[in-house]
Amino acid sequence: MNLTQLTVFREVMETGSIAQTARKLNRTQPAISLALKNLEKTLGLTLFERKGRRLVPVPEAYYLLAETTGILDRLAAISNTMEGLIKGHSGSLNIATMPGPSAFLFPRFISQSVGENPDIKITLSTRSSPQIIELAGTQNIDFGFADFEHSNGKGPQYSVELIMADCFCAIDRENPLAVRDRISVSDLDGVPMGGLHETHPFQRKIRAQFQGASAQYNSTVTCQYFLPLIPFVSSGQCCTIVDPLTVATERELQLSGGKVVFLPIESPLRYEYAILEPVHRPPSQLALNIKAGWKSEVLAMLEDVSANPSTSIVRTEGEA
Question: Is the pLDDT of residue 159 over 70?
């Protein structure tokens, strides 16, 4: 017995007619009769009594109909599920993002992308960049979004798409420096500064910039990520150099009530974001769609704040 025979049998049970079944299935009447005959031969059972042009089911046919309906309905459900998976309209997704974008930008993107689709299940985790790198390396997420950190040479088990863009200096609107079109590191010599922890790669890059300009980096406020620094800037307690997605977030949320301005930096300081994907965990179509959509969303936001974004692929060890 095969699916074609079972499909023909169910239609004949519903219509009671070879001719109607043939029309419904877009088959010839001889083909329908042959499929039904072969099914009866396989079962060793006559399923219908022929009364004129009508086919009257025997009692055993009703039992077979119940079983057949269950099988065909289950296969239809599987087919629909697979179609949804192939088109990225269903499935589950496990994503990790660093604290800044996970506060607003990324959840907004995910909610708009998924909408009210009940067939998509999302797990969104907020982790530090080193934790996200570890999760990608151990194949425990579909993809992650983090600060880029160069490989330690141990052979990373993840691929990296880099997005690079210009940073900005956040300054209280009442600060005399706020009237400038752009600002240099030398302008910030000795100025109270807010920043990330000293071990953060970007913070090390900032300190190197200050040293290169023979300027004093006067650290007065330290936070885990950029957004918590904005209230300190708006109250005039410090200035801070921030990544461009923080600028995009502030423009959307207006956390400072318009009290903070963001100035471009002379000799632009580039921020590096990384989209991390495990190399031994084949991505689903849903993961590919969401990852590509997020990349486009990030680039659009960076363009909107005039951060001059660019992209590149980082080759991982072991690649040809």
Answer: yes
3-state SS record for the chain: CCHHHHHHHHHHHHHCCHHHHHHHHCCCHHHHHHHHHHHHHHHCCCCEEEECCEEEECHHHHHHHHHHHHHHHHHHHHHHHHHHHHCCCCEEEEEEECHHHHCCHHHHHHHHHHCCCCCEEEEEEECCHHHHHHHHHCCCCCEEEEECCCCCCCCCCEEEEEEEEECEEEEECCCHHHHCCCECHHHHCCCEEEEECCCCHHHHHHHHHHHHCCCCCEEEEEECCCHHHHHHHHCCCCEEEECHHHHHHHHHHCCCCCCEEEEEECCCCEEEEEEEEECCCCCCHHHHHHHHHHHHHHHHHHHHCCCCCEEEEECCCCCC
pLDDT, tens digit (0-9, with 9 covering 90-100), for 248-279: 999 999 989 999 999 999 988 999 999 999 98
Whether 98 and 138 map to the same domain: the answer is: yes
- pTM score of the predicted model: 0.74
Domains identified in the chain, total number = 3
- Whether residues 250 and 309 share a domain: the answer is no
pLDDT averaged over the chain?
89
Residues 16 and 98 placed together within one structural domain of the fold: no
